[in-house]
Amino acid sequence: MPADDDDSAVTLGDRGRDGGRLDDAFMGEAIALARRAEGDTSPNPLVGCVLVKDGEIVGRGWHKGPGLAHAEVAAIADAGEAGRGAVAYVTLEPCDHTGRTGPCTEALIAAGVREVVYAVADPNPLAAGGAKRLEAAGVAVRAGVRESEAREMNRAWVHATTFARPYVVAKAAMSLDGRIATRTGSSKWLTGPAARREGHKIRAQSDAILVGAGTIAADDPALTARIDGEIRSPLRIVLDSTGASPLGAKAFERSRAPSEASALLATTARCPADRQAAFEAAGVDVAVCAADDDGRVDLDELMADLHKREIRSLMIEGGGTVLGAFLDRDLIDEVRLFYAPLLIGGGKPAFDGAGVARVANAGGFEFDPPEAVAADFLVRGRRRRDG
What we know:
27% of the residues lie in helices and 25% in strands. Strands 6, 8, 11, 12, 13, 14, 15, 17, 18 and 19 form a 10-stranded mixed sheet that branches. A 5-stranded mixed sheet has the order 2-1-3-4-5, sandwiched between helices. By secondary structure, it is an alpha/beta fold.
C-alpha cells in the first residue's frame, strides 16, 4: 500500500481520505491556470479547467479574454480523444447559455466527460443552470471544492454580478497620521518604490481608475499601470462636476485602441455644452450624471452607468474629497492603505467628507494584519456585505 503522503500513487477512484486531497490538488491546478489571465478577462470571470483521467491530467485550459474560448472548451481541445470519460475540474459552474461563445455544458457533454467538479456556483442568472443541464444528460456533478479560494479570485466579478455595480477598491498612500499631502499640497513621494509598485499592480488588475478634478490639477497623473516595462491602460475616469479639468491632462491622453475610450469624464449638467463637445472631440467619453445635494456627481448613478459599460472593478485613487465621498456613500468594498513611517500634521486627510458621527458606527470593515512593504506597510480591509 502506498504511503499516505504519496499522491502520485493514488488514483481518482480512491475517494476516501485521498480522494479529497486529489480534488484539492486538481482544483488547485485549475485555479492556477485561471490566474494566468488576471487583468485580461473582464467583463468575464477568471476560469480554469483541467481534465483528469486515470489520476492524470490530460487536458488544461483557461479563459484568456472576452470572445475567446472558455476554459472548458480549451481543456477539451487540449485533451483531444483522451478527454472522453474524464473528470473535469473547473473553477466556475459551466455556463448554460450562448453569449459571445456557445454553452460549455454542451461542449462537455459532446466531449464525453463523465463527471464535472466545480468550485463556485455561477451567480449570473443568464448563465446559471449548468449543473442541472449536465445532470440531465447523465454527467455526475459535484460542487464546492476550494470554493472560498476560487470565489476570492473572482471577488470583483461576483460582486458586480450580485450587486449590479463595480467592486470598488480604495487605495491611498499616507503618513502615519493619515495625511496624503502637506498643507502646501506636497505629496511626492510619501511611500517608497516598493509600495508604489504594489499600487501599479492594483491598477493593472482594475478595469478602471478614478480620481477627482483636484488630483488632476495638483498632480496631473497618467493613471496607467507600469510594471517591468509593460504599460497597461485601464479606463481612466475623472470626477469633475463642472468639466473644468484641462483637456491636456495626462489622464485624457489616448493610450488604448482607437475603437476604445481611453478616458471618461464623469460630470453633471453644470458642465457647459461646449466643454462636453471639446472633451468628446478629444476622444474622451462624457457621462452626464445627476447632481447630488452638493452639486457633485451622484455616485450611485455613476456606479450604475459604469456597470452598463461593463466595468467590473474600479480603483479609487483620490484625493481625499473623492475617497471621503465614496466612504460616506458606503461604496467602498476594499481598502488598500499604504502607510509611510512619518508624521505630517495638518495637511490633507486621506478620507475627507462627513464621516461617521459615533465611533460605534465606524465598523463594517474586516482588516488583515499590517504587511511590511519595504520601509512602508500596507493595511488591507474588506467591507462586510450581505449577499
